[in-house]
Amino acid sequence: MSVSPCVLIPVYDHSEKLPRIVGRLRESGLFCLLVDDGSSPDHAARLAALAAGDAGVLVTRHRENRGKGAAVKTGLFKARALGFSHALQIDADGQHDLGDVPRFLQAARRHPDAVICGRPVFDRSIPKGRYYSRYLTHLWVWINTLSFAIPDAMCGFRLYPLERLIPLLENEPTGERMDFDIEVLVRLHWRGAPMVWLPTRVRYDPKGVSHFRPLEDNWRISRMHARLFFTMLRRQLLGGKR
Length: 242
Fold this sequence. Notes:
Blueprint: E1 5-11, H1 18-27, E2 31-37, H2 41-52, E3 57-62, H3 68-81, E4 86-89, H4 101-110, E5 115-122, H5 128-145, E6 158-161, H6 162-171, H7 180-190, E7 195-202, H8 214-237
Helix pairs in contact: 5-7, 5-8
């Protein structure tokens, strides 16, 4: 499989750091696909300005906020329609280390059929509640995959082979919001998709704005884990079949 990657960035009222992020990615010659998930007019205007003078930047917009998962899925289908083979997902808030992008691309060229996943290395900037709550998701992912094959399902810095991922999205339900990143890796694992894990630094901006809603999103993620658990049991009864 040849590797023709683009960058996919879901955006919801996070436009302040995007000029720097997009600028660095464009310096590397990477096409940037921005999915505006119903941002306010000021943020939407900034995104439009980024794309106005650069044919290597494209903005696709949701009229209303539909959630990170929905934005990523819109971007993945758009990337395939544009002829790309792989999509590198990066968050818009600047927490991912762009210096690691070449490592992800090199890994994809060595393993074009694999999902290249970031395994986060946190510094002291991560909120303690977010840090410890991740372990509950780790536990459920290990239960639902009956393995330790996925050490971290929550990091949004990953590179997808579209030939692997699009058939899953077309045929299986996946979350529309913060549950998407977790669920899609579990379902890819069930389909036998190879995964390569790369340590990558993740930094939280203490002045940054988070769209993670602790009560609503944790409830949604808990429901998703329960749904995956019962699907896993059914798969075991059927001999591992979907």
